[in-house]
Amino acid sequence: MQNHKKFIDYVVALAEKNVKKGIGGPFAAAIVKNGRIISCGYNGVTSKNDPTLHAEIDAIRKAAKKLETFDLRGCVIYASCQPCPMCFSAVYWANIKKIYYAASKENAAEYGFRDEKIYKELKTKITSVKMINIKDKNYLNPFKVWNLKEDKIKY
Amino acid sequence: MQNHKKFIDYVVALAEKNVKKGIGGPFAAAIVKNGRIISCGYNGVTSKNDPTLHAEIDAIRKAAKKLETFDLRGCVIYASCQPCPMCFSAVYWANIKKIYYAASKENAAEYGFRDEKIYKELKTKITSVKMINIKDKNYLNPFKVWNLKEDKIKY
Fold this sequence. Notes:
Two copies of one chain form a homodimer.
Chain A: H1 2-20, E1 28-33, E2 36-42, H2 55-67, E3 75-81, H3 85-93, E4 98-103, H4 105-110, H5 115-122, E5 130-133, H6 141-148
Parallel strand pairs in A: 3-4
Antiparallel strand pairs in A: 1-2, 1-3
Helix pairs in contact in A: 2-3
């Protein structure tokens, strides 16, 4: 638990610095493997003009680049705040199995962030983002070609 | 509907090409504003060593960069396949209100992709990714500093 506290302290301090420096929202994260920090991530949505640049996404991208793999199995992630559904799913795709976080999505909501709202919308069929299905005659072709591809790399 | 079909045809063809070229999974997307394509995105998870590099994330990042804003209000997204929860949430954060898609998450599941599984996990409290809450004494500081920051840019 001591080690977890240390990394949580660290990312919480980074998140505070991120706001003070005007880089973006109050969020930071770190990817850790075998007790060592592989990468740190910061929210840079507004300064980098990238709505996907959340701390966890940033940390995952940097760790994957550094370790030269899209598969971060064996890594864990520390986040100053509970990941939003985008970041939770990114963790999932990266094969990271444990997320340690400090503030909750309810805390984030209190300060005006929509994380909790998206979590709620993902549990219903009625969302503020409309998903409209339009099939053309070829819509399964990409998957069929994928299926036949002998040298495909699964992820 | 004719226009929607045209863009769907286009991204489905891009997704097929993406597999043939060995760039990544069978997915492509395009951001459209006022009937014009702003950006195209491709799945590049395996070739770029980036587990977050899904087609929609790629398209959103490129569009935001091109339009020099993190707010893609007024844009719509066309995707060769129903976005996974990571990409759905990215669309949400980008303030895009409509997603047109061809193949479904059930189709993706049939071909070995985990999109549907993540959707299911987000509806339960028991997930294969563990979220562990560890609070230090400063855990709300980033939000408090954010709250007090007069020149903050909300997103």
